[in-house]
Write a structure and sequence with these properties.
mainly alpha
């Protein structure tokens, strides 16, 4: 009874134990090689020397470039809108308030002064020609000068606002758009490509190589060892040991138990039963 157990232990338990130790050793080696020695240092260096500097550069660009540029843009827009609104309001005031008021004053002057003066034409002709006409001409000249000055000021303000907007646009393009495009072309795009290539070289290619050269052969070797050390011995043991032993045990049980039981039933039990119970004996014997 001990030798079959030892045979089963040697054919089944020992290969499974060796296979388990082999898989455990391979797992430890893979974890040490891929993670402890390769992936963990590479990912740590990539985080410290690539991703963290890029994040700091983006933060610095946001704080030092973009936020001041947005503040300057807001200030310029506020100034332009304020100046534009003021200039527009002054122009509207001049067109729709001052000029109509002047026209009304002229009409009133015509009604209150010119027409009554016609009645006093001769007495007032000299007064008008010598006093009033020069005064009116001076007033008209002053009004024209003031109008020209106001128009010049408005045109200068409009031109200044236009040049300010253009200059701010040029500065914004020069200080924000071009650096951002340069940063995208020269830093972000090469860094992304380098990161993708590094990821491919550091992670994808080693994983593919490990899959092709280590895991697939290890799986094939494990499958072959399983078939060779477990399936084949179990099949051989089933065909050559278990099945013959089962047949021998069945034959032994049939010879030692079933046949004596049948013989005892036919030769001993049935005659005793028929003798004790006559009514059931002759009718049910055989």
């Amino acid at each position: 009874m001990v030798w079959p157990l030892r045979l089963v232990a040697f054919a089944v338990v020992l290969p499974l134990r060796l296979l388990y130790e082999l898989v455990r050793l391979v797992g430890r080696c893979l974890r040490t090689l891929l993670w402890d020695w390769f992936l963990h240092p590479v990912l740590t260096a990539l985080w410290r020397f690539v991703i963290v500097p890029i994040g700091r550069a983006i933060t610095w660009g946001w704080r030092r470039l973009l936020v001041p540029a947005l503040r300057a843009l807001w200030t310029a827009l506020r100034m332009v809108l304020w100046d534009w609104l003021i200039a527009g309001s002054a122009r509207l005031l001049w067109l729709y308030v001052v000029i109509p008021a002047a026209k009304v004053l002229i009409v009133l002057f015509d009604l209150l002064v010119v027409r009554p003066a016609r009645w006093l034409r001769r007495p007032l002709h000299w007064f008008g020609r010598t006093v009033l006409l020069p005064v009116l001409r001076a007033v008209a000249a002053v009004i024209r000068v003031v109008a020209h000055v106001v128009a010049a000021v408005v045109r200068a303000g409009a031109r200044t606002a236009a040049w300010t907007v253009r200059g701010f646009g040029f500065l914004l393009h020069l200080l924000l758009v071009r650096p951002a495009a340069w940063f995208w072309r020269t830093v972000a795009t090469p860094t992304g490509r380098a990161f993708a290539r590094t990821l491919r070289v550091v992670v994808v290619c080693p994983l593919g190589w490990c899959w092709r050269t280590v895991l697939v052969p290890a799986g094939q070797a494990v499958g072959f060892a399983w078939r060779l050390l477990v399936v084949a011995p179990l099949s051989w043991g089933w065909r050559t040991v278990v099945r013959p032993i089962g047949r021998a045990v069945g034959a032994t049980m049939f010879v030692l138990v079933v046949m004596p039981t049948r013989w005892a039933d036919r030769t001993v039990w049935r005659p005793i039963r028929d003798a004790l119970l006559p009514r059931n004996g002759p009718a049910r014997r055989g």
